[in-house]
Amino acid sequence: MDLLFAATSSPSPAPAAGGFDLIGTILWPLKWLVEMVLVFWHWLFTAMGLPPADGITWVLSIVGLVIVVRSALIPLFVKQIKSQRKMMEIAPELRKVQEKYRGKKDQLSREAMSRETMALYKKHGTTPVSSCLPLLVQMPIFFALFSVLNDVTKHVTAGIGGVGLLNAELTQQFYDAKLFGVASLHETLINAFETQNVTAIVILLTLVVLMIASQFFTQLQIISKNLSPEAKTGQAYQMQKIMLYVLPFAFVFSGVFFPLGVVIYWFVSNLWTMGQQFLVIREMPTPGSDAAKAREERLARKGKAIDSSGKVVPMEKYQAEQQRLFEEAEAAKAAAPKRQQPVSKQRAKKTQGNKPAGGGQQGKKPDATSGTP
Prior knowledge:
Layout lengths: L1 H8 L12 H26 L7 H18 L1 H16 L1 H10 L6 H18 L8 H18 L1 H7 L9 H9 L1 E2 L3 E2 L4 H6 L3 H28 L9 H21 L4 H24 L6 H12 L2 E3 L5 E3 H21 L9 H9 L20
């Protein structure tokens, strides 16, 4: 409580001389939350005996921040998985709409295609944006962390703290903290090159490469194992393949400007995503995908299968359900009225003329023994 009172009663940094700081005002609540979580984990690890100004203490605090943020995003991640499933289900209908308006570039056709597409999304309760929710929510937190770490040098020089619980004393400790005693957490790759800090350069380059590799592998898991054959024929799949190789280049350039603490946050967050994605693909794969077939084979070896409601049941119960569904389908087929084949008028007249009149057998050859000529 003393820490909370001291932090909240400390003066906030004055706005820049340029006037009103819009971005800073928008990020202020998130920066306050980021500082609160960092300070909590720092307090916990310090209470466990770690030095308060040591690099490993603050690195573990950043890892704790990842755990808190990603745990809070689990409900959104579940919603993302459900949205992706629904998008897969309506993919054939979306292709029909696209085929219907293929080659039509006039304004009315474009508006009609947009209306029909949005009607499909509304009917099935999904949108393409739903599959991006965890990333969209996490990005402001990422920028808030970037802002907190980026302001450390400026705040230490001014002798002030952050916007919340990260007071002047903790800000100084964070500024003095160095990973392995050589790399400051607020240091960027550009700073390391300017100061010729070879060890810091190696650490930052290694982490940037690992960050890119984890991002690449996570995306590769999805497009190689968790897509159905139908999804691999659409335009969205081609875009995913392009992004698989293009996105790492974006991280190469942005990683140069990220402070070491932000690179650590992003890398640990990628590890969380990779592990989470592995569990989802293994236990809740997309129907028809290679991962779904592998799961069915694993269950079959254990004498289990997946019933029509998606639950794992014993093989005997699954086979009984399949037999029941087959019998119901056969009964419905037998009860359905048979469809009469359409016949042309000429053929109908010919068939009508060939019918025997008065119950006789028209066209029957005379018996040789009857004496009839």
